[in-house]
Design goal:
heterodimer; A: 686 residues; mainly beta; four-stranded antiparallel sheet; B: alpha+beta; five-stranded antiparallel sheet; 32% helix
Chain lengths: 686, 745
C-alpha cells in the first residue's frame, strides 16, 4: 500500500492522576471515578466501559469520597470540607455545601439513596437529607474524638459503622448514639503503633468488615463486639474494601498494589456453614490501590499508578466476549493532542497547561523499520499556563498553527500565534464573545477561518476568526428537539460546509454551515460515539462506536453508504470487535479517498475500503505475515484492515501529508518513573 | 494410557440373565484353556465358551427343579468341571443320594458334581452329597480346587471327597459371607473371604496347609458400606480393595506373615480412588483391578441434574484420573468380570466382551497428553504415490506389527487372514527376528543389515531397538559372540537412546568395549546415573597401556592435551590471568619436591589422551546429582584421586583461556568440570581427608581456587562500574523523538 514517514513523538509528558475513589451506581450501569487531581469520570458498563463523561479537576477540590444517591445523582466530598453535587449533563459542579466538620474523609449514601452520611476530621458523623435541588443538613450523630476515615450503612439503614484510628464504632441512626465501640488493635496491644481502619463494610447479617493499616481484613460481630475472623493479607496496609451486592464476595486493595478477592463459601460441599475464604489474588497495580469496587460481574480496582483495572469474574460470564476480557485503562478515552497539519505543530493538553511543539524533519528516505537521521530537531515552542485553580476542559490548535484555543470551567481563551523566523509571538485575543461555558470540545475549520465550540445543552457556537487577532460570534446551533446533554465531539468537513456534533445522549446532529441550519440527524445507535470525522472528498461521516462498530453515513444523501451497509451485513472481524479500547481519532488521506485512518491506544489502522473485509477465519493482524510473502502471493491475502501495533500506547495519530504520519506515544515506563516509589505513604499522624 | 477397544457379543441371555438387580449371571469363570470362559447362569445351566470364536463349546444342565448354587469352576489340573447344586427332589421325602439311605426328608440337599468335556448328562456323572451348604468353589491354577462352605469352613476338594459327609464346622456363626477369593502363596493356597453382620464387616484369611485362620474386622465407615471387593496378593501381602457406597475405592493391606493370635484385629483402610470426575460421580457396582495403577469400575455415572448413565470406566489410581469410559445405554446387571485383558458384562440382553489395553502409566498419558500410540490407521510417513503396492503392504504391515503387539489375539487373527496372501518377505520385524534366532552369525548379521537398510520404514526407531535387542540377546546366550563393529555402526549412525536398548551398555561394560561406551555416552540422552558411574569406573580402572592399543575418538582432547605428554621438558606456561598459583606459595608448599609439584599443580595431564577422551564423554553425559552421588561414593580412593587430578588439570586448562572454554569438539565446559569436581569432593570427602596423596592435590586446588575467587571478585567491581556506564549510555538511547519509516501492505 505504501510507505509512511512516521514522526514518532514521545515527548508528551502526560502523567495521568492516580485513582482516588470509585463508586458503582447501585443497580445502574455506571462507575464513577475520582482522581487525585479532583477530576471525576463516569464509565458506562453498557457502552463497553467507555469513559462517558469527564469533569476536569480543580486545584482545591480534592475528592475523597464519591457516592451515588437518589438514583443517578453523583455526590463527592473531600478534604476541602465541602459536599459537592456534580451535574452530569453539564459536566461541572452543580452545587457545593459546607459539611461544617472540617475535612471530609468519607461519605456514603444509605441503601435508598435518600440520606448521606459524612465522616469528618473532627470525629463527627453528619447526616444530610438528599432533597430535590440539593442536600439539607439533618443531624449530627454522637461525636467522639478521632477522625472518621470510613463509613458504612447497614443495608436496613438503621445503623452506621464508622472506622477511625484504633477503633470502629457503630451508631444507631434513630437515636444517634454510639451503640458499640470495638478496639481493633486489641490483639496487638504490645505493638505501640496506631491501627488505622482504612475501610469498612456493614453486611446485612450484622457482620462488620474492616481493613486496616496492619494489613488485616477482619470480620466482626458488631452486637457482641467480637472478632469472628481475621485474615492478614499483606504486610502493609489494606486501603480499600468493597462488597458485592449479594454480600458473598469482597475485594480488598492493598498498598503494595495487590488486590484480593474473599468469598463466602461453604466449609464443605453442601454444608450450610460458610466462611470467608481468600480466593483470588491479583497484582495489577504497582502502587497503592486506594479504591476498589465490586460490580455484579467484575472486580474493579483503581490505583495511584492511575490504572483502572476491570477484572471480570469468569464464573459469572456466560460466553467469551467483550465483557470477559481483563481491561486496564490508564489513558483517557479522548484525545489530549491536536495537530496543526500544515504548520506541523502539536498541541499537548495537560491538566493546567498547554505545550506547543514543532516537529522535526528529515531529508532522507529509507526502508521499512529504518530510523532516519534528523536534519531538524523538534522544538518546544511555547508553554501556555492556565491561570487559576481550574483544570483545562479542552484545547485545539488551528490547521495553520496560528490560533490556539482552550477552555476551563469558567473561562475561554483564544490566542493568536505568530512565527517570525525562529521566534514566536503569542497574543491573547481580547474580548472573546461571552459564551455559555465551559466548552467541551474545540474544533477549528480546515481553512482556520472559524472555530466551533461544543457547549452545553447540545449547542455548538460558531466563532469567526478575524485577522490580525479577533473573533466574533456568528451563530449557535441547537438540536431541533433540544437536549440536556453537553456536546463532546465535533467534526467539520474540509469544504467548510458541514459540521457534525455528538452530545451526551449519543445523538449525532449534522448542521449546514452555509445556511446555518440543522441538516439531519444520524439514525440513533444505542452506543457511545468514540470518534467521528467527515471525509474531505466524499463528505461521508465515519463514526466509531464504543462497541467497536464502524459506520459511514453520507451527509449529502442523509443515509448510510453502501459500504457501511455491506460492513453491517458481513460483520466486522471477531478480533476487531473484541478489542478493549475505543477508537479515539479518525482521519483520512485526501490522496487516497478509500483510506480511513483510525487508532486506539494499542493500534493504528488504515482501513482500505476498496479491499474485501476479512472473515473470521482470516488473520486480522496480518502485516507481518504479508511482509514475508512474495509480491505475487500478497494479493490474495490482502484485506481491508491494515493494522500496525508498533506504536504503543498510542495517544494520538494523524496524517500530516500524503505519506507522513505523526504518532504520539506515551511509554508506560516513562510514567512509572514519574510516580513516587511504590511504598506505603502515610498521609497523616505519627 | 488405558483404552477400551472393540466390543463384541459373546452370547444372548435368557430372561433371567437380563439387566437389573438380581438379574445377570451367577458367575463367569475361566475355562480349562486360555480364551475359554465358563458361564453359570442363575438357573441350572453352565456353558463353556471359546471367546474369540464367540461360540459355545459345551453346555450342561442339572435336572428340572434343581438349581446350581455356586459358580461352576474348572479344575485346571484335571480339566474337570465342578458344580454344586441343590437337590430339591430329596425334600419331597425320597432321598436319592448315595450317601444317606434314609426315608426321612434329606438334611443334605447339597450335591457336588464333577464331570469332564465328554460327559453330556449331568445326572450320570460323579456325585457327592455334602453335609453343609457350599458358598463357593475356588479353582487355583496349581493348587487344585478349594471349597468354601457358607459357615466359613474350608476344605480342599481332595480332602472333601475323601469323606463327603464329614462334619463342616461353622466358624462365622451368623455372619454372612459376602465375597471370597483364593490365591496361591508359594505352594499353599490362601483363601480370603469377607463377611457381614449388623453392618460390621469382617475379613477372614485361611491358609490351608498351615490350617491357620485369621479374623479381622474392617474399619467402620460412617454412612457407607462396602459394595464390592477385590483382592490381589503380592510379596506376602494381600491387598484388599473395597468399593464403598460413598463412591470411593479403599485399599486395605493385610500381611500374610501374621503370627500373633490376637482376637479381632481392626484393619485400617486408606483411600485409593475417588470415583468423581468434574462434578459427576460414578456410583460403582463392581470393579476389577487391571494392574498396579489401573482399576475398572462398572457403575452409573451421575452428573448433577442429569440422568445417570451406566458406564464402564477405567481409572488410574496413581494420578486419580478417569482414563476412559464407555457408556452402556442398555443397562447392565452390575456385574463385571475380567479375564485375559477382556471385560465381560451383561449389556441389555447379551453378554458383551470388551478388550482393553493398559499401558504403563506416565503423567503425560494420565492427563491424556501423550500422543495416542494406537492409531492403526494410515501412517503419515507413507507416501502413497512413490510406494508400489507391495512395498506399501510391507510398511503398513511392519508398522501394524508393533502397534498390535498389545492388542488382542482376536484382532490379530483377523488381520493375519488378510495378510496371508502376502509374500513371506513381508514378515514383520518381530517375526523376522524370531526366525533368525537360530541362524548362523554371518547370516544373522546380514539379515539385520538388510533390515536396517530399509530406511523409510515408518517405525524405524522401534525396529532398530528390536535389532539391537536381538543382537544383545545373542551376545548373552553366546558369550563368545560380540559384534563390536556392527554395534558401533548402529550406534554411530542412528539416533538411539538408552531406553530403546537398555542392555546394550551393560553388555559393552561387561566386554569393556570403551569405544562403544564413549559413543553411547556422547549420543544417548537418557543414561541412568548407575550406568554413567559404571562407565566412569571402568574408564578409570583400565590401564593406559591397554587403552593405547584401542581406537578411541580423541577429538575432544586433541586440541588441549599435548599428545607427547611424557616429555617432562615441556615449558610450564604462565597462567594468563596473572593469578597463577605459583605466586601464592607458602611455607608448606616449599617442602614439596619439584617432582611432586609437577604432577600436582595441574600443569600436566595425569591421564593419557585416550583415557582423557573417555572421561570427557562421562563429563558430557547428563545426570542428576541426587542419583549420581550415592554411586560416586563407591568409587575406589585411588581412582577418585586420579579423577580429581584430571578435573583439576581441566580446570587449570580452562582458566588459561580468557573465555574459560577448552578448544575442540565435545570438550568439557567449565561448568561441567566444576560440577563434577564438587560432586566428587562431596562424595569422597572422607577419602580426600584421609588419603596422603590427596593432600598436596587438595592444597594446590584450594590455592588455585582462592586465587580465582580473588580475581573474580575484582572483576565483579569492574562489572559494576561498566554496568553503570552502560545504563547511562542506554538512557541516552531512549529517544523522545525519531522519524521512522513504516510500511503498510
Amino acid at each position: 500500500m505504501g510507505e509512511f514517514e512516521v514522526h514518532r513523538v514521545r515527548f508528551f509528558g502526560l502523567v495521568p492522576a492516580g485513582v482516588r475513589c470509585l463508586a458503582c451506581q447501585p443497580r445502574g450501569g455506571r462507575l464513577a471515578l475520582a482522581r487525585t487531581d479532583g477530576a471525576v469520570e463516569v464509565y458506562n458498563f453498557a457502552a463497553n466501559y467507555f469513559q462517558e463523561k469527564v469533569i476536569p479537576g480543580h486545584e482545591t477540590r480534592s475528592v475523597e469520597a464519591l457516592c451515588w444517591a437518589a438514583g443517578d445523582r453523583l455526590f463527592g466530598a473531600g478534604l476541602s470540607g465541602d459536599i459537592t453535587e456534580y451535574d452530569l449533563a453539564l459536566l461541572c459542579v452543580a452545587r457545593s455545601v459546607d459539611g461544617c466538620g472540617g475535612p471530609i474523609w468519607s461519605m456514603v449514601a444509605n441503601s435508598s439513596g435518600t440520606q448521606l452520611a459524612i465522616g469528618c476530621e473532627d470525629g463527627s458523623v453528619k447526616l444530610f437529607q438528599v432533597v430535590p435541588g440539593g442536600i439539607q443538613f439533618e443531624r449530627n450523630l454522637d461525636r467522639r474524638k478521632g477522625r472518621i476515615l470510613c463509613l458504612s450503612w447497614h443495608p436496613s439503614d438503621t445503623h452506621i459503622a464508622a472506622g477511625s484510628i484504633d477503633f470502629l464504632r457503630v451508631f444507631d441512626v434513630c437515636s444517634g448514639q454510639t451503640v458499640q465501640r470495638i478496639m481493633v488493635n486489641y490483639h496487638v496491644l504490645k505493638v505501640r503503633r496506631e491501627c488505622i481502619v482504612w475501610s469498612i463494610a456493614f453486611l446485612s447479617s450484622g457482620t462488620v468488615i474492616t481493613s486496616d493499616s496492619f494489613g488485616r481484613v477482619q470480620f466482626w460481630d458488631w452486637q457482641r463486639g467480637t472478632l469472628m475472623e481475621s485474615h492478614t493479607v499483606s504486610t502493609s496496609a489494606v486501603l480499600s474494601l468493597a462488597v458485592s451486592e449479594k454480600e458473598d464476595s469482597i475485594i480488598v486493595g492493598t498498598s503494595t498494589g495487590a488486590t484480593y478477592q474473599f468469598q463466602l463459601l461453604p466449609v464443605k460441599m453442601g454444608s450450610l456453614e460458610k466462611r470467608w475464604v481468600r480466593t483470588k489474588p491479583f497484582q495489577h497495580h504497582t502502587h497503592d490501590v486506594r479504591a476498589v469496587a465490586h460490580s455484579s460481574t467484575a472486580l474493579i480496582s483503581g490505583g495511584l499508578d492511575a490504572q483502572l483495572v476491570i477484572r471480570p469474574l469468569m464464573e459469572k460470564m456466560q460466553k467469551k466476549g467483550y465483557d470477559a476480557a481483563l481491561r486496564k485503562f490508564t489513558f483517557p478515552h479522548r484525545r489530549l493532542v491536536s495537530c496543526a497539519r500544515k504548520a506541523r505543530l502539536l498541541l499537548f493538553q495537560f491538566s493546567q497547561h498547554l505545550e506547543l511543539w514543532r516537529l522535526g524533519s528529515t531529508d532522507e528516505t529509507g526502508k521499512d523499520g529504518e530510523v532516519l537521521p534528523l536534519c531538524r530537531m523538534p522544538e518546544h515552542l511555547v508553554q501556555l499556563k492556565s491561570k487559576g485553580p481550574e483544570h483545562i476542559y479542552c484545547s485545539c490548535v488551528s490547521p495553520c498553527g496560528s490560533w490556539v484555543a482552550y477552555s476551563t470551567a469558567s473561562r475561554f481563551h483564544l490566542y493568536r500565534v505568530q512565527y517570525e523566523g525562529d521566534g514566536i509571538s503569542i497574543k491573547k485575543v481580547p474580548k472573546v464573545p461571552k459564551l455559555l461555558l465551559p466548552a467541551y470540545q474545540l474544533q477549528f475549520s480546515s481553512d482556520s477561518g472559524s472555530l466551533f465550540v461544543a457547549s452545553a445543552r447540545g449547542s455548538v457556537h460558531v466563532l469567526q476568526l478575524l485577522e490580525p487577532g479577533g473573533c466574533k460570534h456568528l451563530h449557535t446551533f441547537r438540536p431541533p428537539s433540544g437536549s440536556p446533554e453537553a456536546v463532546y465531539l465535533l467534526a467539520s468537513s474540509a469544504d467548510g460546509h458541514w459540521l457534525a456534533a455528538v452530545g451526551g445522549d449519543w445523538a449525532i446532529h449534522i448542521y449546514d454551515l452555509k445556511c446555518f441550519k440543522h441538516h439531519c440527524t444520524v439514525p440513533t445507535y444505542s452506543c457511545a460515539v468514540t470518534a467521528l470525522a467527515i471525509h474531505p472528498v466524499t463528505n461521508n461521516l465515519v463514526i466509531a462506536y464504543s462497541d467497536q462498530q464502524l459506520f459511514e453515513f453520507s451527509i449529502p444523501e442523509k443515509q448510510y453508504t453502501a459500504w457501511s451497509r455491506m460492513v453491517q451485513n458481513c460483520g466486522l472481524h471477531r478480533v476487531w470487535l473484541e478489542r478493549d479500547s475505543p477508537i479515539t481519532h479518525i482521519t483520512f488521506n485526501p490522496k487516497n479517498p478509500s483510506h480511513i485512518l483510525l487508532h486506539d491506544i494499542y493500534m493504528f489502522c488504515v482501513l482500505d475500503k476498496s479491499l474485501p473485509l476479512p472473515d473470521n477465519s482470516a488473520l486480522l493482524m496480518n502485516q507481518s505475515t504479508l511482509k514475508q510473502l512474495p509480491e505475487t502471493a500478497r494479493q490474495r491475502q490482502l484485506h481491508a484492515f491494515k493494522i500496525c501495533k508498533k506504536f504503543q500506547p498510542l495517544l494520538f495519530a494523524d496524517l500530516l501529508d500524503e505519506n507522513c504520519l505523526v504518532m504520539v506515544e506515551r511509554p508506560i515506563m516513562d510514567i512509572k518513573t514519574q510516580l513516587p516509589l511504590p511504598i506505603q505513604q502515610k498521609k497523616f499522624g505519627t | 494410557m488405558a483404552a477400551l477397544c472393540e466390543s463384541f457379543t459373546l452370547c444372548g441371555l435368557g430372561p433371567s440373565g437380563g439387566v437389573g438387580l438380581g438379574g445377570g449371571l451367577l458367575a463367569l469363570e475361566p475355562g480349562p484353556d486360555p480364551d475359554h470362559v465358563l458361564l453359570t447362569d442363575r438357573g441350572r445351566t453352565a456353558t463353556l465358551f471359546k471367546v474369540s470364536d464367540q461360540k459355545p463349546l459345551g453346555c450342561w444342565s442339572v435336572k428340572h427343579g434343581q438349581i446350581i448354587t455356586c459358580p461352576v469352576v474348572c479344575n485346571f489340573e484335571t480339566h474337570e468341571y465342578i458344580a454344586v447344586h441343590d437337590d430339591k427332589i430329596s425334600e419331597l421325602g425320597l432321598c436319592s443320594c448315595h450317601t444317606c439311605f434314609s426315608f426321612f426328608p434329606c438334611k443334605l440337599p447339597w450335591v457336588l458334581r464333577i464331570w469332564n468335556n465328554k460327559d453330556i448328562n449331568l445326572d450320570k456323572v460323579f456325585k457327592a452329597t455334602l453335609s453343609a451348604d457350599v458358598y463357593r468353589v475356588h479353582s487355583l491354577p496349581n493348587g487344585g480346587p478349594v471349597v468354601l462352605f457358607k459357615g466359613g469352613g474350608v476344605r480342599t476338594l481332595d480332602v472333601l471327597l475323601e469323606a463327603p459327609q464329614q462334619e463342616i464346622e461353622n466358624i462365622i456363626s451368623d455372619e454372612v459371607i459376602k465375597w471370597s477369593e483364593a490365591f496361591m502363596e508359594g505352594q499353599q493356597p490362601v483363601l480370603i473371604f469377607t463377611t457381614e453382620k449388623d453392618g460390621d464387616f469382617f475379613v477372614y484369611i485361611q491358609k490351608l496347609k498351615m490350617n491357620s485362620l485369621h479374623r479381622y474386622k474392617l474399619e467402620q465407615q460412617e454412612l457407607s458400606k462396602p459394595l464390592s471387593f477385590t483382592a490381589y496378593i503380592k510379596n506376602q501381602i494381600i491387598t484388599l480393595l473395597c468399593l464403598y457406597s460413598s463412591d470411593s475405592v479403599y485399599k486395605v493391606l493385610i500381611p500374610l506373615q501374621q503370627n500373633t493370635e490376637e482376637e479381632e484385629q481392626i484393619l485400617s483402610k486408606s483411600l485409593l480412588l475417588n470415583l468423581s470426575v468434574s462434578g459427576s460421580v460414578l456410583k460403582g457396582t463392581s470393579f476389577v483391578v487391571l494392574d498396579k495403577d489401573h482399576v475398572a469400575v462398572l457403575g452409573s455415572l451421575a452428573a448433577s441434574g442429569e440422568e445417570s448413565k451406566e458406564c464402564l470406566t477405567i481409572w488410574n489410581t496413581k494420578f486419580q484420573t478417569l482414563q476412559t469410559s464407555k457408556e452402556l445405554p442398555l443397562g447392565t446387571s452390575g456385574q463385571l468380570w475380567c479375564y485375559e485383558e477382556k471385560f465381560f458384562f451383561t449389556h441389555g440382553k447379551v453378554l458383551t466382551v470388551i478388550m482393553y489395553k493398559c499401558e504403563t502409566s506416565s503423567l503425560a498419558a494420565a492427563v491424556g497428553k501423550l500422543k495416542d500410540s494406537q492409531t492403526p490407521d494410515v501412517s503419515s510417513y507413507v507416501n502413497w504415490n512413490t510406494l508400489g503396492d507391495e512395498e506399501l503392504v510391507v510398511s503398513f504391515q511392519s508398522q501394524q506389527s508393533v502397534a498390535l503387539k498389545s492388542e488382542s489375539k482376536m484382532t490379530l487373527r483377523s488381520k493375519r487372514n488378510t495378510v496371508a496372501k502376502v509374500q513371506p518377505d513381508t514378515l514383520s520385524v518381530g517375526q523376522l527376528l524370531l526366525n533368525l534366532k537360530d541362524a548362523s552369525t554371518t547370516a544373522f548379521e546380514d539379515e539385520l543389515r538388510q533390515l536396517m537398510s530399509k530406511a523409510q520404514m515408518p517405525d524405524f526407531q522401534a525396529t532398530i531397538g528390536c535389532v539391537i535387542t536381538a543382537l544383545i540377546n545373542r551376545c548373552k546366550t553366546n558369550p563368545k559372540y560380540y559384534p563390536r563393529n556392527f554395534l558401533l555402526q548402529i550406534v554411530q549412525t542412528r539416533d538411539l537412546s538408552y531406553s530403546l536398548c537398555p542392555d546394550l551398555m551393560a553388555v559393552a561394560l561387561e566386554k569393556k568395549d570403551v569405544h562403544l561406551l564413549q559413543i553411547c555416552l556422547q549420543r544417548f540422552p537418557d543414561i541412568p546415573e548407575e550406568i554413567t558411574y559404571a562407565c566412569l569406573k571402568v574408564f578409570l580402572s583400565i590401564s593406559e597401556a591397554y587403552l593405547q592399543r584401542i581406537d578411541v575418538n580423541l577429538e575432544s582432547v586433541i586440541c588441549y592435551i599435548d599428545i607427547e605428554f611424557n616429555n617432562k621438558e615441556v615449558k610450564t606456561e604462565i597462567v594468563e590471568n596473572g593469578f597463577s598459583a605459583e605466586l601464592e606459595q607458602d611455607i608448606w608448599d616449599t617442602k614439596i619436591t619439584k617432582e611432586t609439584h609437577l604432577t600436582c599443580d595441574g600443569e600436566f595431564c595425569p591421564v593419557g589422551p585416550q583415557k582423557a577422551a573417555l572421561l570427557n564423554a562421562v563429563l558430557h553425559s547428563a545426570y542428576s546429582e541426587t542419583f549420581l552421588l550415592p554411586h560416586l561414593k563407591n568409587l575406589p580412593a585411588q581412582q577418585a584421586v586420579l579423577f580429581l587430578r584430571y578435573l583439576y588439570y581441566l580446570y587449570v586448562k580452562c582458566s588459561e583461556k580468557i573465555n574459560t572454554t577448552l578448544p575442540g569438539i565435545r570438550s568439557p565446559t567449565i561448568n561441567q568440570i566444576m560440577d563434577w569436581m564438587c560432586l566428587l569432593l562431596d562424595a569422597q570427602f572422607t577419602v580426600m581427608v584421609m588419603l596422603p596423596d590427596a593432600k598436596e592435590l587438595l592444597s594446590n586446588l584450594h590455592k588455585f581456587v582462592r586465587a580465582q575467587v580473588r580475581f573474580y571478585s575484582e572483576l565483579n567491581k569492574i562489572e559494576g562500574s561498566l554496568r553503570e556506564l552502560q545504563r547511562l549510555n542506554h538512557q541516552k538511547d531512549s529517544q523522545t523523538y525519531s522519524i521512522e519509516v513504516l510500511e503498510l501492505i
